[in-house]
Design a protein that fits this description.
It comes from Candidatus Dechloromonas phosphorivorans. The chain has about 90 residues and is of the alpha+beta class. It contains 3 helices and 2 strands.
Length: about 90
């Protein structure tokens, strides 16, 4: 039987946060390209596939309370860490 990590590097810890995924930075990059960005003060949904330790997702959720943030990660330990951080803040 194959390991659950088959084809996936699980031995290297993730980068704690990826600021390039910030809704504000994504909107800025769209504006630079003359593409209309969504209104970040309105109701939006944001989904991060592969959130690692969850720090970026949780930071963005705190900064944009009107946006509904969702995320998932393949690594159960990372998902558990993000859930603990979201629940306790530590």
């Amino acid at each position: 039987m194959s390991s659950w990590t088959e084809g996936y590097v699980a031995e290297i810890p993730y980068t704690p946060a990826i600021t390039e995924l910030s809704p504000a930075l994504l909107a800025l990059n769209l504006a630079i390209r003359n593409v209309r960005a969504p209104d970040l003060t309105g109701a939006l949904n944001y989904y991060e596939l592969g959130f690692g330790m969850g720090l970026s997702l949780l930071t963005h959720a705190a900064a944009f309370p009107n946006i509904h943030f969702y995320g998932t990660d393949f690594n159960p330990a990372s998902a558990a860490h993000a859930q603990e951080l979201a629940t306790t803040g530590a």
